[in-house]
Fold this sequence. Notes:
Blueprint: H1 2-20, H2 38-58, H3 66-82, E1 87-94, E2 97-108, E3 114-121, H4 131-152, E4 159-166, H5 180-190, E5 197-202, E6 231-237, H6 241-252, E7 258-264, H7 279-284, E8 289-293, H8 315-330
Parallel strand pairs: 3-4, 3-5, 5-8, 6-7
Antiparallel strand pairs: 1-2, 2-4, 6-8
Amino acid sequence: MVGSRFALLSLALLAVSFGISCDQEQSKNGGGKGMETSEVVKTAERLREHVKYLTVTIGERSLGMPENLEKTATYIESFYRDLELPSQRESYTYNDFTVATIVANINFGVNPTKHYLLGAHYDSVWGTVGADDNASAIAVQLETARELKYLLGGKELGIGVKFVSFPLEEPPAFGTRYMASKIYAKRAKKENEQIDGMLCLEMVGYTCHQKGCQDYPFPLMFMNYPKEGNFIGIVGNLKSTGLTNSLYKAFQKNLDLSVVKLTVPFGGWLMPSVRLSDHGSFWDQGYKAVMITDSAFYRNPHYHLPSDTMEKLDYKFMAELVESLVLFFSTHSG
């Protein structure tokens, strides 16, 4: 049995290494100008206000507090209403209460030929207010919508962007038929919804700058990945390689945000930690999807703890991610 396990482990290592050997690149950018533009400062402040509302005014957003899930859904809806963007609820029942996925749209053209989905879950794990996980992602999602509306509104880019905020991602819903992204992706597949790329925002606000503070799943810790947690990661499966590369190239244009990309084979099943968010639901339905992340518990020691609070986050880092996302959407016309 020991020999068989060793053989299987060796085979898995070879498979994973094959899948990422040409993809473990880091942008040499980051820290670029060494100064903040006024727009980045304003975006960072708006991001902080979103996170404050979600984690302080509302607080814990778990299944144990369905009233707070509803408050969060209402907050997201109100934001889109203020932007004059059309939005809708896709509600379903979990046990004895109702939760809602919030969907908003921006079309840059009358008949877009490419359709992207920018998704993030808005719930938190039991006993936490979830600043990084995942208020940071909702904040970036909302501010990306704002930037696209005001910077690109009216331009004929031939693309549509759908902003989807999922109510249930955390345990005990994770991986079950009640997981919101599983419901959405399954329905999208059944209805032949065109999704040319699903971009999942998962924990995007924590940085660390001490050498060795950044960890990795096996076997990436043996490879030449950064030792400091000052980059954003893009994780895709083999089918999503083109999407991963396009995002990576667009993100490189932002000189103030380092970016690392990773492509995994076999739908990420050989490295299960890369499947731990809503992009996995879209992989399973055959869609091209990536996770955009600060790497979660491989960097953030407050993961799923009460200490995951707003003062731990790097809002300049988050603001630069908004800029990178806008760069991607503005350069990928239909």
